[in-house]
Specification:
The complex is a heterodimer of chains A (about 325) and B (about 325). In chain A, about 65% of the residues lie in helices and about 0% in strands. Chain A is mostly helical. In chain A, a hairpin with a 2-residue loop joins strand 1 and strand 2. Chain A is elongated, with a radius of gyration of 24 Å. Chain B has about 325 residues and is an all-alpha fold. Chain B is built from 14 helices and no strands. The longest helix of chain B has about 35 residues. Classes of the chains: A mainly alpha (about 325), B mainly alpha (about 325).
């Protein structure tokens, strides 16, 4: 019941019951969507990301079509001197240092990259939202403690920390902390998520502090709604736009993070193809000076993914900037 | 002001203590293998491990170890202040190991900062003043390229192109100016500086463009124009001052963050800076060295945060401290 009354006072759209008919309040959401859809650059970005995503999904099909699996080694792709051979009709992107198909591995790399980046983004968003909302909503001592923790995380050299956690967890295959931290794709995702939530938490906290004083929140409090209910029904819908903007920033950053960890050999296990790992293979012993294809193609795919997500991000930010005059979108 | 300063300093102390706790947990509590085993070398015997545990203070309960760790850091150990212990691998003091490498990282970060400010900000400001024209489009495209290209890819590609193929740039490695002369030093630093700077140049171009566009809409710019002063004066005296102040704070934070953010460039270009040292130490299981680098960077960033806040207040009279 309280949701019906309070959402009339909420700044962004919602439904309103008038004489038994449900009326859609003319919210800014539709306008934001319209702006985004008519942004040529954003659409280009969406197309690029869609292309990479489709490739990632159909990777096994492509492997079947080409007839090479990602970890299969081909003696024909390595010269007598042990150097990889370049692109040819059946090996579009050439071979790597042990004679694997760079094309198939690059396509499979898209799977790793997108899985890790998106999962980590979702986890860190939930973490950041929860911590930011609790700090902002309760204020006082809770806020002081959480804010200092956020400060600490923001000051940490993230890459160094991620590298060390991955290393200490990889000393034995059983992992650390009684098997809680085990090397593999899950650890990489967890490490990335663990270090990327503070930024969002800080933004959400700021927003919630302002929202706490708004009429619709006070109305809900007067009506006797509990803290959890207010946070979920009244506060959360109003911090969605900064969260979306944050997501568009964090996804490309996670893509890069995974690639960097794998570049140091601390990302996904050896058997899972990853762009960062492939680039590290190309860098090892300056192999790239000869086998340029080993560096060019995985790097290009990484670049296209980053470009796509960045274009989408610009579009989302522009659309929100134009539809909301307040600080809601800029944080 | 004094009260604000005291408050910030107290916060600083709390944050430093938290950082110490977190690093301690990561390096001494999480690892499944006792550091003593790593320290004892390739052929550890139970007696040797027991001896090492005794020497490193690892036989104390964990909270005593933590207090010792904090005391050494805050008040120094037998190698001086700040007490960072000794390396498990070379057995020399971490303080002295980090010292020389800090210089290389600082040179790399400082040079890159100069490059990105000189490229990024003029690009963004001109872009905003020529909004929608060819230059604006070109610069937007270029900055998008800069922020999307991964540093390790850009580094390897530029080495391949400019060093291996074209031969216009020297290869990787650090050549101290005192030993090899100024020319060789700059020559070997140019590629790392540019590669590290491009990402930031892209961000700064976009930020300064947005910031200038924002200020151009402000009332005081209309007033300035209405007074009849030249457009050049309006831009230099009014627009730039107001729009670049937020960038100054960003610059301080980014520069401090680079202490730990140069890792990839140092490795690609084989520069013996702090980042490379940390990564090498990670792989050799040299916990005190990694810990030392992590602590120094984290505390550096925290201090920069405070300094930047104060700087912001002096640069921008609209901001009041201790509200």
């Amino acid at each position: 019941m309280s949701a019906g009354i309070t959402s009339v006072l909420a700044p962004r759209g919602g439904t309103l019951e008038l004489g038994g008919t449900l009326t859609q309040q003319r919210g800014t959401w539709r306008e934001t969507r319209w702006l985004f859809r008519h942004d040529r650059f954003a659409m280009t970005g969406l197309a690029l990301v869609a292309l990479i995503a489709v490739l990632a999904i159909v990777a096994p099909l492509i492997a079947l079509l080409v007839g090479h699996t990602p970890n299969q080694t081909f003696d024909a792709m390595v010269t007598a001197q042990g150097l990889p051979r370049g692109p040819s009709a059946s090996f579009l992107f050439g071979g790597d240092q042990v004679g694997r198909d760079v094309f198939v591995r690059t396509i499979y790399g898209a799977r790793t990259s997108l899985t890790v980046a998106l999962t980590a983004a979702v986890v860190s968003t939930i973490l950041g939202l929860l911590i930011g909302m609790v700090a902002g909503y309760y204020g006082g001592f809770v806020d002081v403690v959480l804010s200092r923790i956020i400060d600490v995380f923001l000051a940490l050299p993230i890459l160094l920390f991620a590298i060390s956690i991955s290393t200490v967890a990889s000393v034995t295959t059983a992992g650390a902390l009684g098997g809680l931290l085990k090397p593999g794709i899950g650890l990489v995702t967890a490490v990335i998520a663990f270090f990327s939530w503070p930024y969002l938490a800080r933004i959400v906290r700021g927003q919630v502090i302002a929202l706490r004083e708004r009429e619709f929140v006070q109305a809900a409090q007067v009506l006797g709604a509990g803290d959890a209910r207010i946070m979920w029904h009244e506060v959360l819908p109003n911090v969605i736009s900064p969260v979306l903007v944050y997501l568009t920033l964090i996804v490309p950053s996670n893509v890069l993070f995974e690639a960097a960890l794998s570049y140091f050999g601390l990302g996904v296990p050896e058997s899972t193809p990853s762009w960062g790992q492939m680039l590290a293979d190309a860098t090892a012993n300056s192999l790239f000076t000869y086998a340029w294809w080993m560096m060019l193609f995985p790097g290009l795919f990484l670049f296209i993914t980053m470009l796509g997500f960045n274009l989408i991000g610009d579009g989302v930010r522009d659309a929100f900037d134009k539809t909301s005059g307040s600080a809601a979108a800029t944080g | 002001m004094a009260r604000y300063l005291a408050g910030r300093l107290l916060q600083l102390v709390i944050v430093v203590l938290l950082i110490l706790a977190l690093t301690f947990v990561i390096y001494f509590v999480i690892p499944p293998v006792s550091p003593a085993v790593l320290f004892a070398g390739k052929h550890p015997t139970p007696q040797l491990i027991a001896q090492v545990k005794e020497n490193l203070g690892l036989n104390h309960p964990i909270w005593v170890q933590y207090l010792l760790f904090v005391r050494h850091f805050l008040f120094g150990d037998q190698w001086g202040w700040p007490g960072l212990g000794s390396s498990y691998v070379t057995h020399s003091s971490v303080r002295s190991l980090i010292g020389g490498r800090l210089v290389i990282t600082a040179v790399l970060a400082g040079g890159a900062a100069l490059v990105w400010v000189c490229i990024g900000i003029p690009m963004g400001v001109l872009s905003a003043l020529r909004r929608g024209r060819l230059f604006d489009r070109l610069s937007l495209g270029l900055s998008l390229f800069f922020v999307s290209a991964p540093v390790f890819w850009l580094g390897v590609m530029s080495l391949w192109l400019f060093w291996y193929k074209l031969g216009v740039a020297p290869g990787s490695g650090y050549y101290p100016p005192g030993q090899y002369g100024f020319g060789a030093w700059v020559g070997h630093m140019i590629l790392p500086w540019i590669v590290l700077a491009l990402l930031y140049a892209g961000w700064y171009a976009r930020m300064s463009r947005a910031s200038v566009l924002d200020v151009l809409r402000d009332d005081f710019i209309r007033t300035a124009r209405a007074k009849g002063i030249s457009e050049w004066r309006v831009v230099v005296h009014h627009v730039l001052r107001a729009s670049l102040t937020p960038l100054a704070t960003m610059f301080g934070m980014d520069l401090a963050g680079l202490l730990g953010g140069t890792v990839i460039v140092e490795i690609v270009f084989n520069l013996q800076g702090m980042g490379q040292f940390a990564v090498e130490s990670v792989f050799s299981g040299d916990l005190p060295s990694v810990l030392g680098v992590t602590l120094i960077v984290a505390i550096g960033v925290t201090i920069a945060n405070v300094v930047v806040d104060m700087l912001y207040a002096t640069l921008d009279p609209r901001v009041r401290l201790g509200r």
